[in-house]
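In the current project phase, work has continued on tokenised descriptions of protein folds. One protein thus recorded appears below exactly as we store it.

——
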Amino acid sequence: MPFAVYVLGLAVFAQGTSEFMLSGLLSGLADDLHVPLGAAGLLTSAFAAGMVAGAPLAAPACRTWPRRRALLFFLGVFVAAHVVGALTPGYGVLLATRVVAALADAGFWAVALVTARDLAGPHQRERATAVVVGGVTVACVVGVPAGAALGELWGWRSAFWAVALVCVPAALALPAAVPGGRPEDVARTGARSELRALARPRLLLTLLVMALVQGATFCTFSYLEPLVTRVTGFGADRVPLVLALFGAGAFAGVTLAGRLADARPHAVTGAGMAALAAGWAALALTAGHPAAALALVLLQGGLAFGTGTTLINRVFHLAPDAPTAAGSFATAAFNVGAAAGPWLGGLALGAGLGFRAPVWVSALLMCAALALTGALSASSRSSRSVRPPGATGRPVPEAEAGRRAAGPTE
């Protein structure tokens, strides 16, 4: 695997830490800036909104740049936003820096995915995607708890400084690791051509499936704390361990999926989604039993991120002529789910349905994803088989029909 892929994974680790670390910093941040806790929580929502909007806007805007330049630009903006955020005394400026950081994060993600796949070559593209996405899983295991610990020791600003500092090694390594020339796909396709490629129904359905899978993942992940303390019976001191267990499973799932998906991507996706639906339902039913809950948290973390990684690869396969746009919209779909899942879980909790309700919402979201996948598979089978004019027998595969129409070859 090229060294550049791991450099990109390091940068994504820092950015993933920033995205999720505020969950452990809100109280101290709200006290320091003299704002309500709800206003501090909006900083997380602002980042999610920036990620969703930034992916389809930022990456195409820089598509004609050499990818090394684009990556350094987005990473530089991200670091600058965290430095300003760490120094600002006002809530308004901090809120603005979260939006700017999210826009830069989204642009970096989109370019990093396509860059990693290109550098890895045709036989290791799925593994390269897994390494980049793995940066997020390591952030869940290491970065987020470390950010919370720093906030407890030296205040929330120290976590912002730490994220900026972790980006520095990646920024120093990128110029040597990533080639500086323009990518070939830019010369072959224009921005409008890439956007037209994204209008394909199968691709749009895949993006929707990805959003549903991520929505299911983050719906339960966001409310693991009340689930394991109010239902499973763990003390508050065990919550970081449970979250780390989910992250460890996610890292293992991404790593394994990166290897298996090279050979059998459809099997990995189908089996993973079915297992996720069953697993969320099982967790909802057995959350009161500590051993079962811990085992399922580990398993679901692996299945969720392993399946999500395979779906990202599927988006690239469905849009080979629009890699930059595919990366940006895959990033947007990922973050639509990350924003919508916790919102839906909060609605279920607010309706008084109990602390298991978000897990049931996750199971329902996975059922919807499975239904869409079934429709997608049926559409794929239909598009691969055509009936030539005048034929009365079984459908003829599209390639064979084309050969018949062209006549015999010498």
